[in-house]
Amino acid sequence: SAVISQKPSRDICQRGTSLTIQCQVDSQVTMMFWYRQQPGQSLTLIATANQGSEATYESGFVIDKFPISRPNLTFSTLTVSNMSPEDSSIYLCSVAIGLANSYEQYFGPGTRLTVT
Amino acid sequence: GQQLNQSPQSMFIQEGEDVSMNCTSSSIFNTWLWYKQDPGEGPVLLIALYKAGELTSNGRLTAQFGITRKDSFLNISASIPSDVGIYFCAGPKISGGSNYKLTFGKGTLLTVNP
Fold first, then answer.
1. pLDDT class for B97, splitting at 50, 70, 90?
2. How far from the centroid of its chain's Cα atoms is residue A68's Cα?
3. Which of A7, A38, A109, B48 lies in the 20 to 30 Å Cα band around A90?
4. Cα separations (Å) of A91 from A65, A99, B94, B110?
C-alpha cells in the first residue's frame, strides 16, 4: 500500500487567484494522478503526473489551467490557476502500485477548495 | 469511453441488515476495485479483484468478480452505523502500452439507521 499526504487539506480562495496543492507519498511510485471530485459527484481524472516529462491531461483539462509538477517519484504539485467558483471541488492525489493487470490505486485525503 | 454503471444510487437500511450493490460495464475489465469514501476524506480501497469468478472477503465485506468480466458486486453483512458512506466501484483501462486510467462508477450512498 501507500500513504499519501496532501497540503493544504482545505482552503478558501478568491476568484482570479491560484492555489498550489502538494502531494507527498511515503514510497517511490511511477504512476501518480490528480483527480477532481465536484460536490456530490464521482471522481474525474484531471491528469497523469509523469516524472521527468509533461503531465498527460484528460479531455477537458489543460495545462494552463492545471499546471502539474512531478520533480521526483514521491512528490507532485497541482496548481489550480485563475480560479472561479466552478473550481470549487475536492482535489485528490492518487498513486497506482503493482503490476499490469494487478494494480491497486490509493488516494490521498483530498484538498477541499472553495472559491468565492 | 468506458462506462461503469453502479446501482443502486442510494440505500437506506436498518442497522444489522445486509447490503448489496453492483457495477456493470459494456467492456471487459481485468481488475475491479471497490472503495469507500467517508465525508471529507479520500476514497479508501476496500477490496481488489483480479480474476473472473474471484470471491474475496474483507471482514464483513465480500466482493465478486463476475464470470463475464463485465460486472462485480459488493456485499456488506450485518451493517453497522460506521458503514455509512459512499461506495465506488472502479476498473482500470490500460491502453497504448502503459496508458493506465481508472474509471469510476457514480457511487452508492449508504445510510444506516441505528
1. low
2. 8
3. B48
4. 14, 26, 23, 23
Taking contacts as CB-CB distances below 8 angstroms, the residues of chain B near A31 are 100
**CA B85 → CA A70, A78, B39, B110, distances in Å?**
32, 27, 7, 5
Q: Which of A63, A18, A105, A8 is CA-nearest to residue B34? A: A105
How big is chain A, counted in residues?
116
Query: What are the chain A neighbours of B102 within 8 Å (beta carbons)?
Result: 33, 45, 94, 96, 105
Closest to A77 measured CA to CA, from A18, A115, A30, A23? A23
Residues paired with residue A105 on neighbouring β-strands, in sequence order: A96
In terms of Cβ atoms closer than 10 Å to its own Cβ (0-12, 13-18, 19+), residue A53 is exposed
* Spatial distance between the Cα atoms of A7 and A19, rounded to a whole number of angstroms: 11
User: Residue A12: pLDDT above 90?
Assistant: yes
Cα maximum dimension of chain B: 49
pLDDT at position A83: 98
Do B112 and B84 contact (CB within 8 A), yes or no? yes
